[in-house]
Amino acid sequence: MTSTERTDVLVIGSGFGGAITAYHLAAGGAKVVVLERGPWLTGKDFDHDFKLGSSYTRAFDFVVGDGMSVLGGNCVGGGSVVYFAAMPRAPRFVFERHGGIGRRMWPQAISRDLLDPWYDRVAEAIPIVKPDWNDVTYAGGLWAAACDHAGRTANPVPAAVDMSRCVNCNWMMAGCRFDAKQSLLLNYLPAALAHGAEIRPLHEVQFIARADGGDYRVHYSVIDDDDYRVETGSGTIDAKIVVLAAGAGATPVILQRSEVTLGRMPHAVGRYFSGNGERLNTAVLNEDRVREVLGLSRGDGRAYEGNQIGKGPVVANWDHLDGSLPEYSRFSLEQLYFPPGLGTILAQVPYAVGPSWFGVEKKELLKRWRSWLIIFQMTEDDNEGVFGPPPARGNADRLSQQMLGIGRLKYDPTPNTLRGWAAADAEVKDILERDGLATVTPWTNDVVGAYTVHPLASCRIGDDPHTSALDDRHELRGHPGIFVTDGSAVPGALTVNPAMTIAALAERAVPGIVEAARSRGVDVRYGAPAPDGAGAGRRGVAPLLPPLSRA
């Protein structure tokens, strides 16, 4: 059954870019509808289980591309529900990067100093703490000790976690049953609902067309709750403003598919994709050497054997986040653990005689999983990803009833990207293989290509119309009234976890969206406090508002 509706603002996606804009626009008086492709899960729904049909497979989207695979959130709240809650701010040098285009990638209107007040707005809405050393996991503590032993520094990672509610269950990647992880389910989204916004789960947007009077008509499918390959309905909604926040792996696909009905898209739509320069290494620890060299003991005869399934990064090495270093040699290293599945498949056997990622030797390696330490690297890449023609529907051809699909992303790493990966690999080996502590091997790229959990830049902001799909206010070039506020708007790799920056950019985009809505006849204002009513952040950004206005 097909339905047709009207709204002031239609938001596609409910992650950071969608939730933040939905809240502010609804609080300002606009009628807001949010369409989310995934299910609506809350604390009671998050299973401590990795079986098919659990919250783990329902809330994730894993898309295999040509040379790059993308793991993202697929639920109300988006990536905030399944991320590890790491919320660092991007280093200052990031905003001056040139990357593969040979000139400044970021708009001149944005620098770290100019983004800091918007970071502050996010921190006011989402409580962020810096864990104490007493709070770190065994894995984080060992990583910190190894860094210290090698003459490096280690830092607790700022996290959006309520430590008073965290029970250290180690299942945060599959959603938090205890509402300790400060996902968008606890702040921006309930505040948007309180101001009248509607959130509709299992609604997958297919394309956007033009409607009467300069409005836009958004075409969507309704997806079955158990089998995402099954379409149970469809409809259209007309809106004066459309905000795309479906993620860097889906937003460009929607726009590509919309070219037939909207007209020509900017050249940069679906180009310049960045995987945030990400890469993983597995260190297989020698328990005796951990005890002898680092002097670590858990008091029960074990040196490590970390209890680490699904626990987020708590300790990072930031020694190479130095703006004086040349581009592609700057990176961060975080302790991390992926749950069974990707980790067990993609981890290679050190010094393997035969295949490095399966076989008898791999079976023996898996027996030692408690002694694994996985290091997550975020480097500088060349934005070399390009999306091909979109599939018939959705962002991928689904292979299973949930989670798994084949996408159209092609990624062929350049020598610059490969050099960055190699530098980070070498640093991890130097730290963890010192004095026989471990053997270190990168995860293989032979199975699903490179991989990222932080896709960026497929519809990025910028000053150059050829290399950026959006202007510096996040409006799609040539299509007034369409905005993009998710990770696809970030110009390139950040060398740290990107959630905080995506959120800050979404906060910064709201005044321009409000002004565009007003020009289209929507009675909406900007100036809502943080979702809990705090107003300091609002006052902090007040001096920055005039340049963002279109008046």
What do you see in this structure?
The protein is 24% helix and 20% strand. Strand 15 and strand 16 form a beta hairpin. It has helices spanning 16-27, 55-58, 79-82, 112-125, 138-149, 188-194, 251-257, 259-262, 287-294, 342-346, 360-366, 415-432, 499-519, 536-541, 545-548; strands at residues 2-12, 32-35, 60-66, 68-73, 155-156, 198-200, 203-210, 216-223, 231-244, 278-285, 315-317, 332-336, 372-378, 386-387, 397-398, 404-410, 438-442, 450-452, 482-484.
Unreliable parts: none
Task: Summarize the amount of helix as a percent range.
Answer: 10-25%
Main sheet summary? 7 strands, mixed
Class based on secondary structure composition and strand pairing: alpha/beta
Bulk shape: globular
Mean pLDDT: 93
Q: How many extended strands?
A: 19
Q: Strand percentage, roughly?
A: 15-25%
Q: Number of helix segments? A: 15
Give the end-to-end Cα distance, rounded to a whole number of Å: 42 Å
Q: What value does the Rg take, in angstroms?
A: 22 Å
Tags for this model:
seven-stranded mixed β-sheet, alpha/beta, 20% strand, 24% helix, single chain, 551 residues, 15 helices
Give a short synopsis of this structure.
This protein has 551 residues and is of the alpha/beta class.
